[in-house]
Amino acid sequence: MLYKLSEWGQVLKKRQRLVLSILGTLLLFSFIYNLVIFVLVTRFNYNISDSHRNFFNLVSIAAYIDCGLLALYVILRTSGNYLNDYVPKFSYSKYGNLENWYDKTFAYNQRKLWLNNVIHNLKDVIQLANIKVALSPSGNQGKYEYNIAREFSKTRFIVTDISIQPDHIPSSENYEYLSAINNAMHVKTYLTNIGISKVELIWDIKGAFWHNHRSWKLNKLLKSYLSILEDNGFIVFDAYDEIEKDKIKINKRRNVSEWDSYIEDSTYTKIKKNLHRNKTFKENFNISIIGEGEAKMAVLKKI
Ligand SMILES: C[S@@+](CC[C@H](N)C(=O)[O-])C[C@H]1O[C@@H](n2cnc3c(N)ncnc32)[C@H](O)[C@@H]1O
User: Quick one: pLDDT band at residue 201, thresholds 50, 70, 90?
Assistant: First the structure.
């Protein structure tokens, strides 16, 4: 119920200018009108007629209602912002600030042959063809995973997310989409439910790690991943170098159908500082950075 209400905050955010200008105009009009009447009555002893007085009261009531609406607007907008910023589940769904993020990024990556480059680079470190079970805990629509599963037919690729997109790629053959809401913090629970105790590869591109970069959350997530990772298993995530903040801002603001660069830092940039300080990481993983440019990836190997 609270979420449903806050969703309106996200709708309002999209219609922000229109809603604000209607409410603002109403408020301004009633304020000016009341002020004029007030000055006329108090300064010039203006004798307002009954019909005028009624209209005056009506405008005052409208102003009160408008103030109430404005307050409601602020509350909904704030909760909408909260959802977008702190509950990733909502930012990627309808009205969320990242509603079209996946499709735009996928199109951009396709143009850059990103997945082909990544698979090519990973070859030296991970034999994808030998991976029996892989998990993408925050796969959104699952398009990349589907393509990997097509190429490596012996790998059972499990995909899920905390925010299930209605247009995700449905399960077929060795690609399996778990369409219940699944939090990466609880991988063991949901994998056990489908009879899997260990995976050899965790594929987490701009996903749960990215969204849980603060130290205590990162630690919790690392422990969650460790609980299902085979010995010598891998965690893979994007590690391209920091991009200019201005470029990110411009791309975010532009309402284009396709990006012309990424609109956020890579997972590695985001978690680097806290990762290298983290005891769970230091005791359990080796890290290697492979590839170049946007296809640069971080590979954590369980030791
Ligand atoms: C930027 S998208 C990345 C999607 C996809 N991995 C890709 O490469 O395009 C981030 C995804 O992470 C998911 N996510 C964030 N926190 C999560 C969590 N704790 N558990 C599972 N998924 C999470 C979001 O719902 C969203 O679908």
Answer: very high
Query: What would the two tokens of residue 232 be?
Result: 């010598």
pLDDT of res. 122: 95
Give the dihedral of Cα atoms 189, 195, 201, 206; nearest 10 deg. -40
To test ligand 1's pocket by mutation, which of 89, 115, 140, 221 has the most ligand atoms within 8 angstroms of CB?
Answer: 140
Query: From the CA of 22, how far away is ligand 1's center (Å)?
Result: 36
Q: How far is the CA of 247 from the centre of ligand 1 (A)?
A: 22
How far apart are the CA of 206 and the centre of ligand 1, in A? 7
pLDDT given at position 92: 82
- Categorize the per-residue pLDDT at 35 as very low, low, confident or very high, splitting at 50, 70 and 90: confident
Pocket around ligand 1: residues whose beta carbon is below 6 Å from it?
A: 88-89, 92, 101-102, 105, 137-140, 144, 161-163, 183-185, 205-208, 211
Which of 179, 157, 158 is CA-nearest to residue 168?
179
Structure tokens belonging to residue 176: 């399996």
DSSP conformation letters of 87-136: -HHHHTSTTSTTTTHHHHHHHHHHHTTHHHHHHHHHTTT--GGG-SEEEE
pLDDT value, residue 143: 98
**136-150 residue pLDDT tens:** 999 999 999 999 999
Kindly report, residue by residue over 270-286, the tens digit of the pLDDT.
999 999 999 999 999 99
Q: How far apart are CA 207 and CA 303, in angstroms?
A: 23
Looking from the CA of residue 204, the nearest atom of ligand 1 is: 6
Which residue puts its alpha carbon closest to atom 8 of ligand 1?
205
CATH numeric code, 101-302: 3.40.50.150
